[in-house]
Amino acid sequence: QVQLVESGGGLVQAGGSLRLSCAASGSIAKFNAMGWYRQAPGNERELVAGISAGDTTYADSVKGRFTISRDNAKNTVYLQMNNLKPEDTAVYSCKAGRSLYLRGPFDSWGQGTQVTVSS
Question: Over 80: is that where the pLDDT of 111 sits?
């Protein structure tokens, strides 16, 4: 339905910050839910932060450190990541869909961007 491209990942020291961007090829206003997910080596993909019906949700491990925002005018979703920890190291992907469930019939996924946090 829409193509998503993540950017902003990279290598950062523990305690540093990054801002991830998820740019859509078209309007994201029609999508009820936008979310950021991550998958670390050996782990399953997990929801990190999401916006659904105007409400935000965060994984317990990132509460107070990460902030998700949505700019419909720019067709972009952001993930501000502060006070990064080595355990945040993962491939981060964004998803547009009808819900924040990991899999949905109308989901669109980006290709992912690598975030590596050194200790």
Answer: yes
